[in-house]
Structure formats: structure tokens, C-alpha cells
Specification:
2 copies of one chain form a homodimer. The first copy, chain A, has 267 residues and is an alpha/beta fold. Chain A has helices spanning 2-6, 23-35, 63-72, 83-86, 104-108, 112-127, 139-151, 181-186, 189-202, 208-220; strands at 12-17, 38-43, 77-79, 93-97, 131-135, 157-161, 225-234, 248-256, 259-266. In chain A, the strands form 2 sheets. Chain A has a 5-stranded parallel beta sheet with strand order 3-2-1-5-6, sandwiched between helices. A 3-stranded antiparallel beta sheet of chain A has the order 7-8-9. In chain A, helix 6 packs across helix 7. The longest helix of chain A is centred in the middle third of the chain and has 16 residues, at 112-127. The interface between A and B is medium-sized, with 25 and 25 residues. Strand 4 (93-97) of chain A pairs antiparallel with strand 4 of chain B, so a sheet runs across the interface.
């Protein structure tokens, strides 16, 4: 990939993925395609960002379908490294981003963002993008990678694309494939709850606790949901707010049976 | 620096320093000069690689003299960042290299190599070298940076230059300026002890403990010395050896009054 990179026409747009692509990923490829002569995509289910009890082994994979989708979308280069090549025996080099990684997903998934930052640093060094494309769906990941790029002086920009949703509002995610039919019917409650909070805020409610309660109550009305967290936080520092001040990130993680989904909106 | 970098003729040779230059640094510039059309040097006394009880504040500085020496040696670009620019308020991004950093200097100076790896990653991202030049004098630093470059897939090479010594054998170091006249007279014992161990090994001694004892005894014969460590280790993993097997790194850290000096040879 490093050798191939030398021959590519700049600027190069990078779309890093864990595969099992959906319209969210393809919207990143579309944006990269519009803005760069060369689009590089990576497919790598990164073991170091999964906890020991998490879904690394059963994370959905379909390389044949992914390759077709990426080719149709106009990807020039697809990089699919082998885990043993990315993490050879004795591997022990890590990028740790402090502060914002301790909250929300970082609190629920210890070590997750160390894995994310490390694999992104590696993929950035290998593909040397001019612009890297990420989805707003993973809002905290976006904040962590922005901080890493700025603080480690990586010399390229990041472009954040809006969350792509199903017609009923459910954010597209590879993990939606885990949902049973009943869970799938229940899952749109996440975006319904976020949208209710946005409406309430737009009509004057700035008490963050009242908005958190509204979201909690709305999600609780669906049977079989289990809330991991409901957060209303500063969009850059991810510190929880008492009074909503724009831009605020409203984010949540909720379990439907064994499946954990996340979603967010920015007020 | 990042903007300046775009106009430079490749390959670019990088010489990262903490300033207060001596012939060791200048030998790195010479090597970079011979092998690259462009030579970039950096001067930055990196606060994050000093412990709270260490000599960050009193570390010797002489920018005027450094600039003259670098210019005479044929440096094209000299980058002298401000600490507040390298580590702005809220800074919290770190590169941690595990394993080999726990031993020797890492054991004696907790956090030291996290600071070294982080500042090097930043300087590498800012200056984007084709070859980076380091001195064998800081052998463990060399091992850490080699591991970081390989494992984080940084796309350039590293060139290690031999330790430059005074005529009496003392390894050149900015910290030699701390030595009193008496300490300066005693300090060549380090290289004398290392050389004795090498002779003994060359004439057939492979028992690492016997060589460690020889070094310890030789240094102990100088008054006012205090040994931090004497190590005979695998040159790549830095694991201590029972039987010397080439290439082995023989390294030591010894205090002369308040001044801590390091030196090493490879068998």
C-alpha cells in the first residue's frame, strides 16, 4: 500500500472502514469521490478496539459484497490488511488520547479508543491521506481523531459526513444486522427520542436534565431496551452540561437484547 | 515548518536535537548532509521527557551558538518550536511504546520514553523526513524509535551514527557541561570499563555476570561514582543476558555527584 501510494494522484481521500458496508460508508466514499481525484478505502476489523467480552469474532464480514460496493462507488484503491501484519508478534506501540476518551463510549468500553487511535494512526501513516472521511454517527470517535490529528501534528484534514438513516430514522450501522425482527421494530425509538429532545430544545428547553429525562422516558416505553448512557455534553470536550449551550452533543448507547446501538444529534 | 516542508527538495534528512550541540550532533548533520539534498534540524528541549525531579529547567541552552554551528555544518532548515505550541493547553495525546521502555533508562526515568516517542512522532509528522538521524549514544532511545517507526508504519528510515568521544574516551553529551573539574577527570572511567569488558569478551569471556562485575569493579575504583545500572542485554529486545550472544548491548548509567551520564557499546 505504501508503494502504491507513491503513484497516486493527490489529493487522496481516505475512507477507513471495518467493512460490512452500508449507505453510511458509501456516503463517505461519495464525498471523497466528489472532492479528490483518488479515493482509497480500507477494510479492517480492528481487533484492538474490541474488549475481550465484545463482538470482534462475530462482527459481520462480507468482503465480496464490500469490494463490489466500493468498486461501484468509484473507489480507486482498497486496502485490506491482515491482522497479523498490522499487529505482528511482540507488537506494543499505542496512541493514547486522554481526557475525552474517559467518557461515554470510552467509559463503557475500556481500551476502545486506544485501539481506534492506534489503528487510525497506522492507517494514516500507511495511506497518507490529504483528507480522511468519517461519519458523525461515531461522534466521540470523531472527537478523538480530531484531537489526535491536531495534537500529533498530522498534516491532513478530516471531513465529517452526516449520519445516514433508514426511512424510519434508525441510524445505519453494521451492527443492525444483529437485531431480531422485534428488536429492529423497536430500534427507531433511539432517533425518535433524540428528535423529541431536539424539538423540546428548539421550543426553549435548556435544562439538560429535563431533556435527558425525556429521552430516558421515551426509550423506556419500548420493551426490552437497556440504557447504557444518555449524554448531553459539550461537543468538543464531551463534558456533561447542566444547561444546554450550542453546539451540544446529545448521544446515547442502548442495548436491544445482546446488541448495543449508539446514535447522536448535535443541538 | 509544515508549509516550508512542501518546497524542500527530497530526500530530506532530519536531525532532531535538544540543542547545546556538540560533535555528536554535528556528526549526525554531516551524515544527513552527505546523503540528502536537504537537511532539517530541530532544536527542542522537550519538557515531557523530563521527570519532575530532573534537569529540564537547568538543561543547558545556547541557541545563538547552535544556529552558527548548524549553519556552518550546512543545515538548510532549523525548526525551533515553542513549548506552548507543541503542548497547548489541554494537550493529552501520547505515543506509548511498551516492553522495551520498562527497562534501563525507562525504569530509572518513568515516563521518559513516552515523552521521547510522543515528541518524535510530532516532529516526524511536522518535518516528514525521508531519513532521520540518531546517535548510538542513546541506544535505548534508538531501539524505542525503531520500534515506533516499524509498528506505527511510519514511512521513512532511521540512520544510527556512532557515538562521538573525547580523546580520553568520554562520550560527548550536553550534560558533560554539568561536571566539576574533578568529575570530568573521573568520567572517562565509563568508556574505560566498557572497553575492558569488550576486551575480556573478545578473549573468550561470555559469562555476562562476570563482565558486569568487571565493569562495576572498574567504575567503583573511581571515587564519587554511583552506579544506576550496568546492563548486558539483547540489542533488540533489551532483555538481560546470562550468556553474551552478539549483538549484545552493554549499557550503563552512572552518577557523578548530581550529574547522571550514560554510555554503551555493542558486542
Amino acid at each position: 500500500m505504501q508503494a502504491e501510494r507513491c503513484g497516486l494522484t493527490a489529493p487522496v481521500g481516505l475512507v477507513p472502514t471495518m467493512g460490512y458496508l452500508h449507505e453510511g460508508h458509501l456516503s463517505l466514499v461519495d464525498a471523497a469521490r466528489r472532492e479528490n481525484p483518488t479515493v482509497v478505502a480500507t477494510i479492517f476489523v480492528n481487533p484492538t478496539q474490541f474488549g475481550p467480552q465484545e463482538d470482534f469474532k462475530r462482527y459481520p464480514r462480507d468482503e465480496t459484497r464490500d469490494l463490489k460496493l466500493l468498486e461501484t462507488a468509484g473507489t480507486d484503491v482498497i486496502f485490506i490488511p491482515d491482522p497479523a501484519e498490522m499487529y505482528p508478534p511482540g507488537y506494543d506501540s499505542w496512541v493514547d488520547i486522554g481526557g475525552i476518551t474517559a467518557r461515554l463510549e470510552g467509559a463503557a468500553r475500556p481500551g476502545h479508543f486506544r485501539g481506534v487511535a492506534t489503528v487510525c494512526a497506522k492507517l494514516f501513516n500507511i495511506t497518507r491521506p490529504d483528507v480522511a472521511y468519517f461519519g458523525q454517527k461515531d461522534a466521540q470517535q470523531v472527537a478523538v481523531i480530531k484531537k489526535m490529528i491536531a495534537e500529533l501534528n498530522m498534516n491532513f484534514s478530516i471531513s465529517i459526513q452526516p449520519t445516514v438513516r433508514e426511512t424510519d430514522g434508525l441510524a445505519q450501522s453494521s451492527r443492525n444486522s444483529y437485531l431480531s425482527a422485534a428488536e429492529r421494530r423497536a430500534a427507531p425509538v433511539l432517533y425518535r427520542a433524540l428528535s423529541l429532545a431536539r424539538e423540546r430544545w428548539q421550543t426553549g428547553e435548556t435544562d439538560a436534565n429535563k431533556l435527558r429525562q425525556l429521552i430516558t422516558k421515551t426509550i423506556g416505553e419500548e420493551a426490552g431496551t437497556k440504557i447504557d448512557y444518555i449524554s448531553i455534553a459539550d461537543n468538543a470536550t464531551l463534558e456533561e452540561l447542566t444547561t444546554v449551550k450550542s453546539p451540544a452533543l446529545v448521544s446515547l448507547a442502548v442495548r436491544f437484547g445482546g446488541t448495543r446501538l449508539i446514535d447522536n444529534i448535535v443541538l
